[in-house]
Amino acid sequence: MGHPPLEFSDCYLDSPDFRERLKCYEQELERTNKFIKEVIKDGNALIAAIRGYSSAVQKFSQTLQSFQFDFIGDTLTDDEINIAESFKEFAELLQEVELERSMMVQNASDLLIKPLENFRKEQIGFTKERKKKFEKDGEKFYSMLDRHLHLSSKKKESQLQEADLQVDKERHNFFESSLEYVYQIQEVQESKKFSIVEPVLAFLHSLFTYNNLTVELTQDFLPYKQQLQLSLQNTRNHFSSTREELEDLKKRMKEAPLTCKLPGQPTIEGYLYTQEKWALGISWVKYYCQYEKEAKTLRMTPIDQKPGAKQGTLDLTLKSCVRRKTDSIDKRFCFDIETNERSGTITLQALSEANRRLWMEAMDGKEPVYHSPITKQEEMELNEVGFKFVRKCINAVETKGITTEGVYRTVGSNIQVQKLLNAFFDPKCPGDVDLQSGDWDIKTITSSLKFYLRNLSEPVMTYKLHKELVLAAKSENLDYRLGAIHALVYKLPDKNREMLELLIQHLVNVCEHSRDNLMSPSNMGVIFGPTLMRAQEDTVAAMMNIKFQNIVVEILIEHFGKIYSGPPEDTTAPPVPPPRVAARRHKPITISKRPLRERPVFFGASVEESGAERLGQTPNGGGMEAPRPLQRSRPPAPRPGGDEPGRAPAEGRPQPRTEPEPGRPGARLQDGGVKPAGKAANGVVASPALRSGTLQARRPAPRPGGNRDGECDGVPKPRSHGDKPVIMRPPVRPPDPPCRTPVPPKLEQKPDLIAGTAEEMPSSVVASRTKFFETASRRTGSSSSPQGRIPGDES
Fold first, then answer.
1. pTM above 0.70, yes or no
2. Does CATH place domain 267-363 in 2.30.29.30?
C-alpha cells in the first residue's frame, strides 16, 4: 500500500500522526537518493566497460588490417583474391560497427548520468534544504511558544501584545516552512516516476538502437559471408588436389632426383670440388657447376673464394671426360675433364659414387654407368578401345548412379579398378566387359575412368596447349577467359576434341543432378582438372597451376553449350589483354563498399534539437504526425460469444509498423500537451532500408470482430500469469525532463510568502511548484491559493 497523502491542513495541526507520515516520506526520499547513486555508479561502470570493449575491438581491427597475404606463383584465382582481401574487409566492418558504438557511448553520459545527477542535486538536494529550514523554524517556534505560555498575566498589556505578535510571526514562518516542505517532498515523490525512469529509458533506447544497427550490419554481412565461405571451400578443394600431386612428385623425387626438370634448365647441375694447384701445394675449391649436354658447355661458379682472390665464373667447353682411377689419387669419386679453354686436365670430385655416375653419363664419359631405368606405370593410348571404354563407363554412370552422392569424388578399390582395366584392355578380347552388370559398382567404374584418362601417354587437352590454357584461366577478364578457351578447344586434335566433348557433356549431365549428388561444376573441376590437363614437366611450379587447370574444366562445364555450338569466328586465341589499369571486370566480393544505410539519430539527439524540430520539423524540412492523446475508459464486461482469446482487435491494436501508436507510455507530456513525433518509432524518421521489426515482436494483422475481452480503445487488459509478454518499443520519444521543458507562466502570488524564497529555488522547482499549487486549488474547488491566509489563524 502506498503512502497516505500529506494534506496542507495537517501542516497547521502538526500532529504526531502527521509527523509519522512525514517521516515515511523522508525514508522513501533517502532510499530513492541511495538508489540513484547506485544507478549512476553502475551506469558509469557500464559505459567504461563499453569504451574498453570498443577500444579492444578497434585494436583487433587494426591488427587484421595490418596483415597482407603473400602467395606462390604469378597469379591469384578470384577466390584467392577474395580471401586475400578478407582481413581488410573484416577490419573495415569492425570499424564501422565501432563508429556506431562510439556515437552511442558519447551520448550515454548525457542520456543517463547527467539527468539523474541533476535530479538528485536539484530536486532531492533542494528538498533536504527545505527539511532543514522546516526543522529549524519548528524548533524556534515551539521554544518561543513555551516561553510565551510561561509569561505572567500580570505583565503589562503592551508587553503581552508584543509577545503575542512575536509568537504569531514565528507560527506564520513555521507554517510557511511546513507548507513548502510538504509540497516539495510530495512533488519529488511524484516527479521521480518520470524523472528517474526517463533517463534510463533514453539510455536503453540508444543501446537498443545500436544493437538494431548491429543487426542490420549483420544482415549486410551475410551475403559476403556466404560468398567468402564458397571461396574458402573452392580454395580448400584446389589445395587438396594440388597437395596430392605434390606428394606424388615428392615421392618420385626421392626415387630419382633428376626425373623432374624444368624445360630450358641444364642437363645436370650441382656442387663439385676442383683440384687447384698453388705454389705452396694443392687445394680443393668448391664450385657450383651447370652442364648443358647439347652445347657441351660447363659453367663453374666458385663458392669458397679465398680472401683477396678475383676469380669469377668460368665458362668452359668440354672436350672429353674420363673417370679417374682410384689408385691414382687419394680422393674418392674423382673424374678428369679436358676443355678447349684450359690446357691439361681438370680433376673434379663428385659428392658420391652415384653422383659421379650421373655427371659422367651426362658428359658422355668413357666409362658410362648404366643404372636401372625408372619404373613407370604402363601408359595407355587414346584409341578406339579407349573411346569404347569411356562410352561404356559414361553409360553405366548415367544409368546406375548419376544421383549417387559424391559420384566421381568417392574412390573405389584399387584391386577392383585394376581387375576392371585388365579385363577391358585384354589384348585377346578388348572391350569384352559388361559394365551394366552387378559385378562392377559405381565407385569402381568412375575410378577406372579417371585412371585411364590420367595415364594416357598424352593428356586429352595435350601438352602443346597446356600453357596457353593455363594462361587463359589466369586472365582477370572473364570474357577473355571464355573466348580464349573456346578458341583453344578447336585447336585440339580431332580425336582429343571428340573425347573432350564426350566427357564434358557427361559432366554437364552429372552437374544437373547436383542437388542429389552434391557435385557442382567447381567440384568437378577439382576432380577432372588434373585428369584432363597435365604439364609435361613434373615440378612444384607446374603443380601450383593445378587450380587454374580446375578453372579451365569448370568453364568448359558451365559454358558447354556455347563452346560446342561451333568454332569461334576466328579459331586463333584472342590477344592477351594489356596489363590492368582500370578496375577488374570481375570485382572481388566486398562489404565495406556497399551503399550505406540511412542511420537514425540516437535518442539523446533530441535534447539539443531546435524549437522548430520540437514543433514537428524533420531534418529535411517536412512535418511529422503527432500521436493522438491517450483515451482511457473502463474495460467492457466480457460478452458471451465474443472474440476468441488471442485474436487481435480490429481497432486500438496498431500494426507492427513504424507509425506512432496512441495509448502507449510517453505519448503525452506531463502538462497534458501532445509532443509531436515522427512517422517512425522512437521519434526517428525511418528510411525504407531500415527494418522496424528487428526488436519488435511480430503480431498478426487485425481481424474483424472487435477487441479482445478486456481491451478497449487501445488499453490492454492486465496480463495474466500464463500469458507471454509482448515486448514492444515505445512508439515515441518520452517527454523531456522537467528541467528541459518551458516554464509555464506563474500565478500572481503575495510577496510576503514568496519573498526571499524564489531566489533560492531552481527554475525547475519554481515551475513545478506553481503547477502543483494550481492543481491543488482545482481539486479543492477553492479559488484561494496556499499562499494566502493560513486556516485557523485568527490573530
1. no
2. yes
